[in-house]
Each structure stands twice: as structure tokens, then as C-alpha cells.
Amino acid sequence: MSTRRPGSRLATPVPAENGANGQPNSIVLGPNDRLVGQLYIEGDLRVTGTVDGTLEATGDIEIAGAGKVNGDVTAYNRLTVGSDASLIAGDVRVARLTVQDGATFSGKVSMGKPARKAEPKAPEPKPQPQVEPVVEPVVAQAAVAAAREPIKKGKRR
Amino acid sequence: MDVQEAVAEGQASVDNGEVKRDGRKQFSMGPGDILEGKLIYDGSVHADGRVEGEVRVTGNIDVATGANVKALLEGSNVLLKGQVEGMVTARDKLTLGKNARLSGDIQVRRLQIDDGATLNGHVRMGDFEHQASGQ
């Protein structure tokens, strides 16, 4: 594995499966899955497991099945809490909210205005939504170039 | 326990100026009506028009689509379809319809929020004995 790692990383550009190539990303936490900590995802999130921590998604967040979330939740689009699901939050920031009858739900809800994107991405002095995708290929190319150089040198020696 | 909306379909009768539906008192407002002050009522309230102040009832409260309510609301089942500003307590269930706009803290046993509703406030959920019907 350790011998493969550098090669495989270079062969598959990171953005390909990270939603950065313009395609929406999606994460599902199943009933046996557990997350402790923070998650920021550019895309949708579906939780049927347990989360202790902070969730933030640029798309939809759905807490379904017997999913349990303890922590702040920010969904730039929609948050859905299913009838058997539970959300015990400090702050809930969403654009749209659906809570089904039977759900456990508590927290401070803020809706109406689009959720602030600036907060988690604090170190952004200039608006650069277009810069990000450009930067990553450059980094990948640089990495490829950097990786090739030692190989050539090795052959020469 | 689940659905108490059948009240609206019952036979209405006028008795001593009170509209009764299925033997339960109903305080029913129209779109042009205005209520200002504090209402403590042994029955259910249909709020429409403009309501300001405080409404505490033993039965249910429903706020019509075009209603403008700036009041503390407390009832068993509370159904909001209009615009409400103020604290809402539902001893059983609070429902926010798709056109509901609620600014205020809520305390409920059960909660249902339909897609399209707007809520800004603190939500507390669970059984609460310390806050009776406020009479």
C-alpha cells in the first residue's frame, strides 16, 4: 500500500470524487455509522446514524430513520427531520425546514435569509469561487511535475 | 389523540352567543375581526384578522392564512397557517403550515413543520407540567 500511494494519488486527481468538478456531492451516514466532530460538505448529507458535532452542508441535510444529531446544523438549502429522527441542537440555520410529526427537535432556529457562507470560510479576503477549482489542478500538476523530476533524476543516476 | 381536527366538521350551534361545535366552545374570528388584549378561554379559538396580546385556551388554536397575530399563544393543539409574532406553547402539538411565518420561541410536546413554513426562534420540546393552562 505504501508503495502504491504516491502513484495512485497522482493518477486520480483529488477533485474527481470530491464534488469540486461541478457535480453535487452527497454523503450518507448509515444506521451503524457514527460521526464525532465537525463535517462541512459541499453537497447533500443524509444521516440515519449518530452525529455528535457540527454539521454544515451547502445543499440539503436530511436526518432520517432513527438518525440522531446532537450539535449545530447549517444547511444552505433544506433541513428535514424525519418522524423517528432526533435533532438536539444549539443553533439551526437553514433556508427551508421540514419537521415531521413525531420527530424530536430542539434548538434555536434561524431561517429566511440565506445562511452565512462566510463564517466557516473566514480566511477569504476576496471573492474567489472561481479560483478554487483553478487552484487544485495547478497543485495537482505541480505535484505531478514534482513527482516526475525525482524519477528522472533517479534514472540518470 | 392524534387528530383533533374533526372539530371543524361537527355541527355548529349557537347557544348564548357562543358557537359550539360538537359540544365544545369555539371562539371564531373572521378576516376583518380585531382582538386586542388578553383572552383566556375554555374552548377553542379560530384566529383570523388581527390579534394582539395574549390568547390562552384549554382547547385548540388555529391561526388562519391571512391572519396577523402578535400575541402569546397557548393551547393544546396549535395550528399556524398565517403570520405569528410571539411565544407559542402547545401542550400537545404545534403544526406550522406551509404558509406559516412564526417569529418567537416555542414550547411543544410534538412538532410538525411543513415545507415552506418559516420559523425564527427557540424550540423546546418535551413534557412540561409546570406551565398549566394559565388560568
Walk me through the structure:
Chain A has one domain (5-156). Helices cover 21% and strands 39% of the residues of chain A. Chain A is built from 2 helices and 9 strands; from the N terminus they run αβββββββββα. The relative contact order of chain A is 0.12. In chain B, 0% of the residues lie in helices and 59% in strands. A 6-stranded parallel β-barrel of chain B has the order 8-9-11-13-12-10. Chain B is globular, with a radius of gyration of 14 Å. The chains are: A alpha/beta (157), B mainly beta (135). Chain A binds chain B through residues 78, 96-112, and chain B through 93, 95, 110-126. Strand 9 (104-110) of chain A pairs antiparallel with strand 13 of chain B.
**Beta-strand percent range of chain B:** over 45%
**Number of structural domains of chain B:** 1
* Topology, number of strands of chain B: 13
Rg of chain B to the nearest angstrom? 14 Å
Order of helices and strands of chain B: EEEEEEEEEEEEE
Question: How would you characterize the largest beta sheet of chain A?
Answer: 9 strands, parallel
Helix content of chain B: under 10%
Helix and strand content put the structural class of chain A at alpha/beta
* Total strand segments of chain A: 9
Main pleated-sheet profile of chain B: 6 strands, parallel, barrel
The general outline of chain A is globular
Using only C-alpha atoms, the radius of gyration of chain A works out to 20 Å
Distance between the termini of chain A: 26 Å
Fraction of residues in helix of chain A? 10-25%
Order of helix and strand elements from N to C terminus of chain A: HEEEEEEEEEH
